[in-house]
Amino acid sequence: MDLKLERKNALILASSQGLGKAIAAELVKEGANVMLASRDEQKLAAVQKELSPLGAGKVGYVVADITNAEAIKSLVSQTALEFGGIDILINNAGGPPGGSFTDFNDEDWQQSFELNLLSFIRTIRESLPHLKKQGGKIVNIASSSIKEPIPGLILSNTFRTAIVGLSKTLASELAPDKILINTVGPGRIATDRIQHLDKMNADKLGVTQEKITEQSIGKIPLGRYGEPEEFAKFVTFLVSGANTYLTGQSYLVDGGLVKSI
């Protein structure tokens, strides 16, 4: 299948590690130009060096704090200037801290709102003039909590679900401009985030992290955590030329973990 990604220009947030990095790698392999973005320049430079030999496209990076409106404006403008446009936007952000409702104050809620929802809104808004030129693709990375709330992750449950409402509404508004937008939620994918959550739960229950991981895997029909590359391949399809009719949808890449219909 020809994914028609050669010379397409992609901006990927939170792409110095984890799922963002894995998506960047797949797009580079398909010949796309990829702009990496995160707050850690050292990691970004290392990832740029690692990914550049994988394909014919350019790999650049911009250091950006996506909770800052001006930083997002600069990130989008630099991407469009360097690549000559933006065809693909992948919104992504690190997960907010775990805890219950009584653990968080107004500042905690505000910080999570700015990181996990407002950053997506701002980046879409800034990217639209570029995406509208020839049509484009947007994927918002969320969580399996968009289908089933995860205990102990109330901040994530709240704002990840809001992303679905945003995406579903924009699917109709952006369709006349030939822009497709979808939401993808990872299940238990083997990233640093999942390692952190397993350790948090282990500490809370007074058991080993290995025990928590074993219990989590036992709930997954496929019997293992997913690999970042598996998640990335699905996102790559959604933003590719092979996807011409899927928009406004929410998908899980979770090995069958979530039982909701």
Automatic annotation (TrEMBL):
UniProt keyword Disulfide bond present: no
Keywords (A to Z) from UniProt: Oxidoreductase
GO biological process, one term: bile acid metabolic process
Gene3D superfamilies xref list: NAD(P)-binding Rossmann-like Domain
Signal peptide positions on this chain: none
InterPro entries the record matches: NAD(P)-bd_dom_sf (IPR036291), SDR (IPR050259), SDR_fam (IPR002347)
GO molecular function: oxidoreductase activity
Database matches in Pfam families: adh_short_C2
Family indicated by similarity: Belongs to the short-chain dehydrogenases/reductases (SDR) family.
Protein name (Swiss-Prot/TrEMBL): 3-oxoacyl-ACP reductase
